[in-house]
């Protein structure tokens, strides 16, 4: 009902004492000021200005608007400045979530890039598996999620409706077989999954465990899973002690390695696709877009580095 332009006019009339002087102070014509006052009176349903000879004075209702105009217009100016700062990346906030191996590899470099290029942007980060991060994104508790999906499955795995989301590919992560260094297959150039039916297995996160079951099923057997842990430092320790074998994505092997563990390509080849997920609206927010670009750059840099695991 009451717009900012109307409030500015009421404050100018209160300060200047006439339509003509108010028009000069605002850079409007006198008829334009009169028209704006009439429009505001029509919207409020009451008289706001009383004409007294060549001067004017505010009615009680007009004085109320003039009195509130200062704080309201100051708040609007502050809001405009904050929005301009966000649009210009002088400020802004991004809530980022990523799964553990990405938080140790892709995320730190991306955060450093944003901090260097846009020091006014604040990024908060928390770790979560894809199911949790996608749920947080849907609930409005997250702006950008780094998730993964294994070949042959969908990102939501039937758990999430992905229609509201947009995904940006980051990298394809090869899944390798990790065995003890003295295992009979440790020197092989490639290992057929079907040759591993008698092995004891170590499984990781729920998605990783599901992927192992799928690989083994395709090869014609059910894997003997004796150990389950989402801590890949523990996985590497178990393998090094000869307690089992595991399938481990290469991104993990870039940061978690053990001199007594060998990593080997498998047949059939297996990969997981790592993606950044957000919404169409959030993708247009400058700070979110800057963080997304940094994740893409970090993934490109990571993709060019070999893992430290023995091959």
TrEMBL record:
InterPro entries given for it? HTH-type_LysR_regulators (IPR050950), LysR_HTH_N (IPR000847), LysR_subst-bd (IPR005119), WH-like_DNA-bd_sf (IPR036388), WH_DNA-bd_sf (IPR036390)
Protein name in the entry: Transcriptional regulator
User: Which Pfam families does the record match to this protein?
Assistant: HTH_1, LysR_substrate
Q: What protein family is recorded? A: Belongs to the LysR transcriptional regulatory family.
**GO-annotated cellular components:** cytosol
PANTHER family, alphabetized? HTH-TYPE TRANSCRIPTIONAL REGULATOR YBHD, NITROGEN ASSIMILATION TRANSCRIPTIONAL ACTIVATOR-RELATED
- Tell me the Gene3D superfamilies matching this sequence: Periplasmic binding protein-like II, Winged helix-like DNA-binding domain superfamily/Winged helix DNA-binding domain
């Amino acid at each position: 009902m009451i717009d900012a332009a109307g409030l500015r006019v009421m404050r100018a009339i209160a300060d200047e004492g006439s339509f003509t002087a108010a028009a000069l102070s605002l850079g409007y014509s006198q008829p334009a000021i009169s028209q704006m006052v009439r429009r505001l009176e029509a919207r409020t349903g009451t008289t706001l200005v009383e004409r007294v000879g060549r001067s004017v004075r505010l009615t009680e209702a007009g004085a109320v608007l003039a009195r509130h105009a200062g704080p309201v217009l100051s708040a609007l100016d502050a809001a405009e400045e904050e929005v301009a700062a966000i649009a210009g990346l002088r400020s802004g906030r991004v809530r980022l979530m990523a799964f553990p191996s990405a938080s140790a590899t892709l995320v730190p470099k991306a955060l450093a890039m944003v901090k260097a290029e846009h020091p006014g942007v604040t990024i908060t980060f928390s770790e979560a598996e894809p199911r949790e991060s996608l749920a947080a994104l849907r609930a409005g508790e997250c702006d950008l999620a780094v998730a993964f999906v294994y070949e042959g499955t969908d990102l939501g795995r039937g758990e999430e409706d992905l229609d509201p989301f947009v995904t940006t590919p980051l990298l394809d992560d090869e899944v390798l077989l990790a065995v003890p260094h003295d295992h009979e297959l440790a020197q092989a150039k490639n290992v057929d999954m079907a040759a591993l039916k008698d092995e004891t297995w170590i499984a990781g996160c729920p998605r990783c465990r599901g992927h192992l079951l799928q690989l083994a099923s395709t090869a014609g057997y059910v894997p003997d899973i004796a150990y389950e842990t989402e801590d890949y430092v523990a996985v590497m320790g178990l393998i090094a002690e000869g307690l089992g074998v595991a399938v481990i994505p290469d991104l993990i092997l870039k940061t978690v390695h053990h001199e007594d563990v060998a990593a080997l390509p498998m047949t059939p080849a297996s990969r997981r696709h790592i993606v950044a997920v957000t919404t169409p609206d959030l993708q247009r927010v400058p700070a979110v877009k800057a963080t997304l670009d940094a994740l893409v750059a970090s993934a490109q840099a990571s993709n060019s580095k070999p893992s430290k695991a023995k091959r």
